[in-house]
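To: structure desk
From: M.T.
Subject: fold request, one chain
Message: Could you run this one when you get a chance? Sequence is below, nothing fancy, just the single chain.
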Amino acid sequence: MNPSEEQALRDMVARLENAWNSADSASWANLFADDADFIHILGVHYNGRASIEAGHRAIWSTIYKGSQAGYRVEKIRTIGRDAAVIFVVGELTFFDNGVERHIKARPTLTVQKRNESWQIVAFQNTLVAEAMTAADKESLVDRHPFKAADDAANQQRS
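Reply: Done. Structure tokens follow.
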């Protein structure tokens, strides 16, 4: 992969971070292909850009309202001329009743060049549990609207 293509992928990750920190679900979702797959930190599977957008809009108005994310590209692995896997380290700060909480995750993005632009076709977000305190884990699982999000994701597939 040439340096300009690699920079385009790093810029994509920076746009994801900016969209998260702005709670801009439309900008977040626009980085994904129409038929993208997204598995969030607790394992819910969203299919399609509209479902990904709705899920992020929901979390940014609930558990992750006011949260801030930081993404660092760890590695880019090309898998052909028009596809790559981007390994990212992510750190998230969110608030639980005024108490600051922290999550570390390892998002893996599979991207494909379609119509001369890169799009995310699959996103798998894996929680780094040992990097969290027990209170942060409890808050995440107890407060995350994953059951409602799972229902919404399933409705999008119907």
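Reply (cont.): DSSP finds five helices and six strands in the chain. Let me know if you need anything else for the meeting.
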